[in-house]
Structure prediction request, 515 residues.
Amino acid sequence: MKNLSRCLLVLVLLAAPAAFALAQGDEITLVPFTNEIFGVQGLVPEGWQMVAPGLYARGGGPTDITMLVQQAAPVTVEQLLASLLPQLGLDAMPEPEDTLDTEAFIWTLYKVEMSAGNLQIMVDVAVAGSEGKSYIVLLQSAPDNYPALHEAVFLPAVNALATFQPTPAAVEEVPYAQEEVTFQNGDVILAGTLTLPEGDGPHPALVLVSGSGQQDRDESLPFVPGYRPFRDIADDLTRRGIAVLRYDDRGVGGSTGDPSVSTTADFAEDTAAAVGYLLSRDDINAEQIGVLGHSEGGIIAAMLAASNPNVAFVILLSGPGLSGREVSLFQNRISLEQSGVTGEPQEVILEAVNRAFDAAAAGDMDTVQAEIENMSRLMYEAVSDDVRSLLGSAESYIEQTVTQQMAAFQTPWFQFFLAYDPATDWAKTSIPVLAIFGGLDKQVEPESNAAALEAALEQAGNADYSIITIPNANHLYQVAVTGNFDEYPSLGTDLHPDLLPAIAGWLLERVDVAG
Prediction:
């Protein structure tokens, strides 16, 4: 629930009809970047801002449409291009312009000319496939900018893009052992880091489970450079005598598997495999293995708490107590508010969203599409003139929105997420539960989700649960001012000072630390 797609996040963003030309004397300096989410490294123009994972905007003014995409996904090149076509307004890709053989990949290069209303856009596209993944470099610009940016940005970016392997955490000097481990769930191999306290054990242990969107083992986010909450949690707890296993999600880092065809239930099986791996070790206390889940990871914690007898306790960070449908409606409401849509227009749009959810539950995709068209038109009419000028014509905006939203509605993950209600599993949970919420969370609303969780645990007769709300924490457990999404990058990498003591204090009252 970090608004990160489980598949490729290629975005072609349109702007107003005017764009400034690159001055003849302007120089572009390229600087190195790494993106651990996509597992790539390369070059990006200095000063361009990352506005979404792997997407960099020049930001030369409100009408500057120039941006660079550098991403990867566990799909074939054909699937990648198919997902890109609607965003380019194409039924099929044009004939390739060229191929480019670099040290890392063999690229196929395309050039696309597209329009949105009166706006003309040039798009360079390079795609390559390797070892079960596809890679893309995409440059969007105005025609006047295109020749200079093609030479100064696009071609150097393609030449430089390569796979990135992070330095193993074991190189850090810490007062505990770190092991790079793998475990298996069927055909899926999961890779992670196990941190072990000093001494022979057996140690109590905790498995960390990330939120939605494919995350690495540290749950790092590219739009908050240096933010690695799972690394910080593991470090703190291991120093206190608790072993911690954190792992790369499917299709990320050292883990295999195709997340685009997976659901939360599949990811829960991955977590169960992590618990099974810990059970196989003599240095882990088999009676004291727990799960900590952040956001969607809290849903996984609910599934295992209700069904896996090897899980002794669970900890939730912004774990939903409400159904995926209710969480999605809340997130839609917040998005509308942040777009300036309030009052009756907001309610009318949310009614259309609700009808789309009803149709999706019934498997009626024709009605889903009709409701998406309806809500898109309502949204276009409700926003300000300034916003409409950025969206282009109503027809192009509606067409693009329908294509993107229909693709999301038809994924196994989203269909499962909408239908699943964690209260059914929390009502069967009798093991100890710690639930922490951020008072400024705009993705999992704290009050209603905490109330639903508590009601379900009471129904289960659970005698050991604690629910804590940290008033000025957001969904990422940063110290926040508003909690809004656009605030995340400005708040730094430190976790809220109340978070780690709350987790450790609760755990140390319930586990036996060896030695």
Q: What stands out?
A: The radius of gyration is 23 Å.
